[in-house]
Amino acid sequence: MIGMVLLAGVLGQAHIVAADGITLRTRAQVTGDSVKLRDIARLTGAEAERLGEFEVAKLREGQMRTTVGVSEVLRGLADHRPRWARLTLRGSTRVVIERKAAGPAEVSDERAGVPIRVEGVRSNVGLRLALEGEAETVREHLLGYVHATVGALAADIDVKFSDRDAAALNRRVAGERYEFEPIGSDMVGRLPIVVRCYQDKKLMETLRVRLHVRVRRTVLTATRELRRGEIMDESYLKASRLWMDSDPGRTISDATSASGQTVVRTIAAGRPIVSHDIKPATLVNRGEAVTVRCMSGNLMLTITARAMSDGTLDEVITVRHPGTRESFTARVTGPGQVLKVVTLQQRRSAAIDAAAQRGDPA
Predict the structure, then answer these.
(1) What does the domain layout of the chain look like in residue ranges?
(2) Which of 74, 174, 182, 320 could connect to 126 by a Cys-Cys bridge, CB 3.0–4.6 Å?
(3) Eight-class DSSP state of 250
(4) What confidence tens digit (pLDDT) does each residue in 19-62 have?
């Protein structure tokens, strides 16, 4: 796969020329354990520099060599919300990283390549890539494309092709460049793809092939049916490795993060739980009398106040003291419980205000 170059874009947006660039090298040397994006790529422009500290790999103690693929880079960058409309990604699809005993990091064999341009990216939209390099058939090129865009390990991706496309898929390539453009926004399930063949920068042929893509993911499921309004509990949640041939949305894999949240629609037993199935549980209701713990240094004072809005765990809400009618903010810590932390500066300001109201001299 080393030496393949990628060209990507997403349909549905006007063409935008990206000014900033990330150029992946084929080899890089580092002195420490942490491998940052700037160690394996040449960065140009503010948006690319912003992503430079992203850790693409970490060498184990004693490990002298590793490799990083473009799919791993794309998957990791997604967490940093790159502004793809401003970026061009180009270069090698696989970077060999070696540990150097001492001295500054060195790089070699940087390939500019054809850019990967990603415009107006939505979370579930596939990239359009053009590939050239070591693959011998269109089928091998297409498999490389699917692995790069889905962003999963090869063992967790299953791709089946239509028999009617065998002649086009088994065609041997020699100097051509192929562009693959998915028709639709979901890279999992039934996937028609337009294949364009270029020679010497000229479009020679356009084909359309059909794939069926399955991805194995770790997802959270319930051991029984969950009804709307229920509070999630870890006792009937479990993480499962499932083959999925459709994209249900943002799946949840951690039972701890889901526990205590409220079910907003019925979840069948065994079905992957997605983010829009649940919401944080309301622990404080508007108009409810709540216990307020006021903490200042080593002092703790407990009072009762009235909540002016609903609140979920760790949410900051406004409460009102029924006697003084004074309103203040506090953080929700549990059912009917909020915490107000008073800093030293706030105590001083309150003392000054109280003295001014009494008419005490400054």
Answers:
(1) 20-198, 216-280, 282-350
(2) 182
(3) S
(4) 578 888 888 888 888 899 999 998 988 888 888 998 888 888 77
User: Could you tell me if 88 and 18 are in contact, meaning their C-beta atoms sit under 8 angstroms apart?
Assistant: yes
DSSP code of residue 270: T
Residue 211 CB: number of other CB atoms within 10 A? Answer: 21
Reported pTM: 0.46
**How far apart, in whole angstroms, are the C-alpha atoms of residue 110 and residue 90?**
10
Q: Give the architecture (CATH level 2) of 282-350.
A: Roll (2.30)
In CATH terms, is domain 216-280 a member of 3.40.50.720? Answer: no
Compute the distance between CA of residue 146 and CA of residue 127 in angstroms, rounded to an integer: 9
Enter the tokens of residue 63. 């490990």
Residue 112 CB coordination number (10 Å):
12
Within a 10 A sphere around the Cβ of 168, how many other Cβ atoms? 19
- Residue 230 DSSP class: P
> Which residue, among 182, 244, 178, 177, has the nearest Cα to 209 in the 3D structure?
182
Q: What is the pLDDT of residues 217-266, one digit of tens each?
A: 888 888 999 999 888 888 888 888 888 887 666 778 778 878 888 898 99
Which residues have C-beta within 8 Å of that of residue 92, sequence separation ≥ 6? 2, 3, 4, 5, 24, 25, 26, 70, 111, 113
Fold for domain 20-198?
eubacterium ventriosum atcc fold (2.60.480)
Residues of the chain with pLDDT under 50: 1-18, 103-134
Residue 165 to residue 215: CA distance in whole angstroms? 22
Give the separation between CA 150 and CA 215, rounded to whole angstroms.
8
Question: Tokens in use for 279?
Answer: 């919401």
Q: Which two tokens stand for residue 302?
A: 């407990």
